[in-house]
Amino acid sequence: MRVETYLCPTSISLKMNIKSQLAKPFADYIYKGIQRSMRTALADQTNILQYLLKKGQSTQFGKDHLLNQVADHAAFQQAVPIRDYELLKGYIQEIKEGKPNILWPGKPIYLAKTSGTTSGAKYIPITKDSIPNHINTARNALLTYIATTGNAHFVAGNMIFLSGSPTLDRIGGIPTGRLSGIVNHHIPGYLKRNQLPSFETNCIEDWETKLDKIVEETISQNMTLISGIPPWMQMYFDRSMEKKGKKVGDIFPELSVLVHGGVNFTPYKTKLLDSIGKKVDTIETFPASEGFFAFQDTREEEGLLLNTNSGIFFEFIPSSEIFNEHPTRLSLKDVKLGENYALIINNNAGLWGYNIGDTVKFVSLDPYRIVVSGRIKHFISAFGEHVIGEEVEYSLMKAAASFNAKIVEFTVAPMVSQHQGKSYHEWFVEFEEVPQNLQAFAEEVDANMRLKNIYYDDLIKGNILQQLVIRPLKKNAFIDYMRSEGKLGGQNKVPRLSNDRKLANELEKLIQIL
After folding, report:
1. Predicted confidence band at 116 (pLDDT cuts at 50, 70, 90)?
2. What is the largest CA-CA distance in the chain?
3. Mean pLDDT over residues 271-280, rounded?
4. For residue 101, what are the CA distances in angstroms to 58, 105, 125, 467?
5. Quick check: 59 pLDDT over 60?
6. For residue 186, what pLDDT band results from cuts at 50, 70 and 90?
7. Are 401 and 469 within 8 A, CB to CB?
8. In what order do the strands lie in the sheet with 195-196?
9. CA-CA distance, 261 to 287, in Å (whole number)?
10. Is the pLDDT score of 86 beyond 80?
């Protein structure tokens, strides 16, 4: 039993206040280092490439690609082609068989298992050299928030990390599991004592069973921070409000920080904050199994600070060229504001020329800040329009603001006419409450889309496409769909866009009859 159980309330309060006070100088110290890295980003990137080349030349990959003969980025581009997971799979298979020195010296200390759209399960190596990127960047995001806002109060309370199970299997002798479960084993001691849910609850595989247990463990605690993917945070909020019959901010009066990542926060923001019922700060992050790429470093400026000094050498391909045989590969010094780039990484986990599947756009070059603009494979171009996630999210949320509508979740797919009538984009939207004039709402979304995408506008003007159609879905439609696919909870996300009808055909069964 912990000693604090026997302390009087005044002693507990004093101890918690000391912990908050100690966090501030540590945060200031770390943030000064981050500010230095902002100024040395280009030099750091050059140094990281040289470090990767030196370490990589003794590996099987390094020998196959003659990395010992590579001196600079131009030569690196000639030696190492762009790959996705499918093209790296042969090397990964050798790692899974227990062979050392394949992509990086030695063996990975973990394999992060993640769902792939074309490759089934993917196994991403995490090495002794790369694990600090995941752990320290998460820490830096919190410490930067403390240093720039002065709010350290939350470190004294309890924090919820909605994550995958920390239970790990072994493949080729290597511990294997979900990234969030792996990271759970590395939470610093000073945070672990405040962490909820318990390890035992985190190990529950079934998401809904786990969620009920999380609510049970946390509902009477002093929760000050909640971290997770927005749709699963919303499920936690909904269950908590059902149990207590009041807003989340009334259940947890000291709650002051939400940490989110994995999907664009904007479509979920209104409902999440309404569920809380009071102002809280949010910290946006950009983590993935392949690396922790960026985090929010300011409340005043748009974008996430690119992690330029953490074992990752970044490359950027103009999104229009990503499917070219020989696309343009830019280093950080050559990027421009406002252009969409496919994000390519080379890191100390042994990922070389690796296309992570996300597109980003720079909103600042001093320092280097990005926004995530979409997924390479999540687009609609059934008619040549190449609509991306950023465009549909903007168009829907702008209309939602005009109509005071709250969006729970949505996805878009093409409807190709096989008979009479024109083709169109079909939007499947779960509303908190369906707008009274759904047709007017759809017209505004369509108008927003035409302003954002000139190709879509041309197709409407040319009578090739008709105006988009919105299909309102029943309450919990997306939860029911994810449950039916065995993808409820964890890091699983609904794609915003599909270029086929697979998801749309399933959601047609869940349309709300008005």
Report:
1. low
2. 77
3. 93
4. 7, 4, 12, 55
5. yes
6. confident
7. no
8. 195-196, 158-161, 223-228, 257-260, 281-288, 291-295, 304-306, 368-375, 354-365, 340-347, 312-318
9. 7
10. yes
Task: Give the mean model confidence (pLDDT) for residues 83-105.
Answer: 96
Tell whether omega for the bond before 175 is within 30 degrees of 0, i.e. cis. no
Q: How far is CA 163 from CA 108, 193, 250, 299, 401, in A?
A: 22, 17, 24, 26, 31
- Omega of the bond leading into 230 within 30 degrees of 0 (cis): no
Give residues with Cβ within 8 angstroms of 117, minimum separation 6: 377
Amino acid at 310: S
Distances in Å between the alpha carbon of 224 and those of 37, 61, 248, 266, 280? Answer: 30, 46, 11, 22, 10
Helix boundaries (H) for 150-287 = 179-184, 189-192, 199-202, 207-218, 230-244, 248-251, 266-276
Q: Which amino acid is at 159?
A: M
Residue 513 is which amino acid?
I
- Residue 72 CA to residue 68 CA, distance in Å, equals 11
**DSSP bridge pairs for 375:** 358, 378
Q: How many CA atoms lie within 13 A of 348 on its CB side?
A: 22
Nearest-5° angle of CA 306, CA 312, CA 315? 75
Looking at per-residue pLDDT, the higher value among 193 and 303 belongs to 303
Taking the C-alpha atoms of residue 135 and residue 177, their distance in angstroms, rounded to an integer, is 16
Closest CA to 50 of 311, 273, 402: 311
- The tokens of 279 are what? 């102002």
Domains in the chain: ranges and CATH: 17-39+131-295 (3.40.50), 379-510 (3.30.300)
Contact present, 430 and 300 (Cβ < 8 Å): no
> For residue 464, what are the CA distances in angstroms to 76, 178, 455?
45, 44, 11
pLDDT at 236: 93
Strand partners, 227: 161, 259
What six digits make up the tokens of 485? 């696919």
Most confident segment among 187-201, 252-266, 293-307: 293-307
**Alpha carbons 91 and 98: distance in angstroms, whole number:** 11
Amino acid at 478: F
pLDDT score of 42? 98
